[in-house]
């Protein structure tokens, strides 16, 4: 089996904002009184259509955000990174197992009971490599098993795993009918969530309606908690300026705005939740037929860049230094890092590396090898306002070195085609957004996407792989994090990834407040009058 276009939007630059650091305030905009009011409709802008809604296989950031409206996990990770009960009321861990005790009275969208047996079936489904699920190989590994006894669920790992709670606790649980017919989840929901999908208009909107009798929410939330909306509508708005206009006109309650429209929204007094966005991260196609398969070429490309200039443009004047390739809550193994350091610009060294690799300048100043010009196909997101200007700066800097730089402004179809079908790309503003180094490893270990894996870049980094294998079975979280940070350094030093700059992208709130640990949590939404 192959995953092909499913993963494209996850790594596509600007596909969605998904990473929360901290709330910037809980005030209201749009003329609200700030008083909590129950009922009504909460409308959030989606900057792309999610396609399939399945929590089992979908990986686009927009899609993963909508998964939260229909499905829940055993544990809840707060915006501060704290792990608290959700479907499970408590748990006990050993180095190789974790036992959850489920809350009483949990029901599914189809009115069936959600039991420990159903939870165990979820783990078994995710652990089977033939299913190719989103969490397989990271949070749920092939060797994991699960058993149920009354209200208790025990998940066992064949090897020590210092992150069993954070990993298994985050997996969204599907009700039994959904596991029995996974294809039914593409355009319907069947989970335990407070909301369930009641209408879907692809390319336009997705409507979720609040269920009655919900009593098991995180931090005591029930169907009767004051301030909850009756409906949540995800409205597809692909243009940021349009989203900003709708937000200011009280037609949206939430929208993520990365570009210049931020200024007029902030001038209107709307507050936001801060979201970390690795907007300038660059990945490389390392397949043998691409010039970027040569480490010397990759290194030359990065050395030739004025990182400060590109970072200023790609972040729209709000650059922040990257401190880890892990950039999503709960930010596992980020503290104390990084162990890597990015090199300073050195155009002369870049030229020498290209010469060494056989890409030499001709009489016209352009580099070629064996009669073939050095052409780099650079992808960027056509829907992210700051990407075009930054890409043009990259083109100018590389052209000065004798490199022909072909800029490609991608839309969702283009990302899928280039990254997962034709593999016709070399580098670009292409990001991945993991919350742990285990999830990060999915993209740098194992099979390429042609063979059903997530390694769409075709990276082969033996030093990284050796350290990652050790980290998987480290005796403690501290030891594992040390190994993961060493492994991350290997990715930077081999130039498998180049984090130019990141920024904090705000998700603005109008007439509502919410928490956003990775994506908006529906049980945290409170409507304001």
TrEMBL record:
It holds the Pfam family SBP_bac_5. Residues 82-437 form the Solute-binding protein family domain. CDD domains: PBP2_NikA_DppA_OppA_like. It comes from the Bacteria. The keyword Signal applies. Residues 1-22 form the signal peptide. The keyword Transmembrane does not apply. InterPro entries: Peptide/Ni-bd, SBP_5, SBP_5_dom. Keywords: Signal. PANTHER family: MONOACYL PHOSPHATIDYLINOSITOL TETRAMANNOSIDE-BINDING PROTEIN LPQW-RELATED, PERIPLASMIC BINDING COMPONENT OF ABC TRANSPORTER. This is ABC transporter substrate-binding protein.
